[in-house]
Amino acid sequence: SQQGEEDPQALSIQEGENATMNCSYKTSINNLQWYRQNSGRGLVHLILIRSNEREKHSGRLRVTLDTSKKSSSLLITASRAADTASYFCATDAWEYGNKLVFGAGTILRVKS
Amino acid sequence: DGGITQSPKYLFRKEGQNVTLSCEQNLNHDAMYWYRQDPGQGLRLIYYSQIVNDFQKGDIAEGYSVSREKKESFPLTVTSAQKNPTAFYLCASSSPGQPVGKLFFGSGTQLSVL
Question: Percentage of residues in chain A with pLDDT exceeding 70?
Answer without folding.
Answer: 96
